[in-house]
Amino acid sequence: MVVRLGVCLHSVLRESISLSLSAQRAGYKSNGRRLDRLETSLARLLPVFGNVPVTRIGGDRIENYKAKRKAEGVCNATIDRELTALRRALNLGKQQLKVAYVPPIDMLEESRRGKGSSPVPNTLPCASSCPTTLSRS
């Protein structure tokens, strides 16, 4: 395995994602994912990690990124999508033998409430007064 020392994420992204952007677009479309989400994530990641050698992207830098984004008021789900894009870029670089090691990237806890769900329980006040069994007459 040949690994170039000092390779920065920007060059990995450029070679891994930009050169295969049409394949990325096709993959995102076929999986029903939004390509603009990926592009937005990469736009957020590049100013922070773009000129950092990949060998220096580790737990501390990633945790600092999370803290910075949370301080900006960004929700956990958005930060997780950005970290997913970072992990994907590093994994693509590893597949192309440009990155030797992909650090573990722990995701933040996301709210599990789905679209249209309510924090109020789905019980009616009269439910306790209903008979437990119904008889047919």
Label the structural class. mainly alpha
Low-confidence stretches: none
Query: Using only CA atoms, what is the Rg?
Result: 22 Å
Amino- and carboxy-terminal Cα gap: 79 Å
Please trace the helix and strand order, writing H or E for each element. Answer: HHHHH
Number of strands: 0
Strand content: under 5%
**Separate helix tally:** 5
Average residue pLDDT: 74
Largest sheet: none
**Residues in helix, %:** 40-55%
Taken from the alpha-carbon principal axes, the silhouette is: globular
Topology of helices and strands:
Layout: H1 9-18, H2 21-30, H3 35-49, H4 59-71, H5 76-95
Helix pairs in contact: 1-5, 3-5
Explain this structure.
The protein has helices spanning 9-18, 21-30, 35-49, 59-71, 76-95. It is an all-alpha fold and 137 residues long. The protein has a domain at 9-99. The longest helix is centred in the middle third of the chain and has 20 residues, at 76-95. The chain is globular. It starts with 8 loop residues before the first helix and ends in a 42-residue tail after the last helix.
Salient structural properties:
137 residues, mainly alpha, 5 helices, 0% strand
